[in-house]
Amino acid sequence: MLIIGSHVSLGGKEQFLGSVKETLSYEANAFMVYTGAPQNTKRTALELMRIEEAKALMDSHHIKPEHVIVHAPYIVNLANPDPQRQSFAVEFLTEEVKRTQALGAKVLVLHPGAHMGDGPEIGIKRISNGVNQIIQNTKDSDVIIALEGMAGKGTEVGRNFEELKAMIDLIEDQSRVGVCFDTCHTHDAGYDVINHFDDVIDEFDTVIGLNYLKVIHVNDSKNDQGAHKDRHANLGFGFIGFDRLNHVVHHERLKHIPKILETPYVTDLVNEELSYPPYFYEIEMLKNQTFNPDVLDLIRKTKGKH
Length: 306
Fold this sequence. Notes:
By secondary structure, the protein is an alpha/beta fold. It has ten helices and twelve strands. Strand 2, helix 2 (51-60) and strand 3 (68-71) form a beta-alpha-beta unit.
């Protein structure tokens, strides 16, 4: 069975219940949410998030807890050289693990952090130390922290499989850690996702181990291989291309892994302030394994609805 979904919103009156409803509108069986805006650390109280209603709706549509992913915000940086900022990141992410557990999700995706000029080796140690503290703070949780492989822009840590493995090696309870594989990031980092994806997966397995792979972000890229820029494109409209991404999604060795789309909303051609979710149509293309070159026009015409 194809386990496929997308990033969905969480907010408004329906909160987490609305996230599940949005997922169902895309005819998906997996999804990813931020527990609040990814650019800040403001969060709604759990008792206001309509969690039990959401869980009941998921259960009635056979959406499994292990196919629900939470993404931590971008602004926390475990590799920050400032001890106070490091401490804040640990405290906030400890609460994120608890919130992930309360939602019934099993995986929290985390951008590892940026070393800010101190070098990747020091950054790796800071990140692993932070993850160890978070796990220690949440001993009763079974939530896995999935370190996301990055494109390598700026001073990002986790720009290759070796850096991800180095972080995992320093984490004491390795049952609580995993990896998120992003097709755009991996391509932008320099791996040949286009022509030799099977070799890339073999290398991942050799360096890290496929047992650590917990979620795949499926995104095309606006840049050529090795650009280190991390700019997502809609499926089939970037340098990777639909056929290669379709190969990733339907890969036999990865069939048990949730695949999550983070592709951009499609901007209205008349009013640039309007944009529409592409996910129903992109998921449909992946289910049918057929690319529609007119899909962006279709999304604009239907305003993302169907």
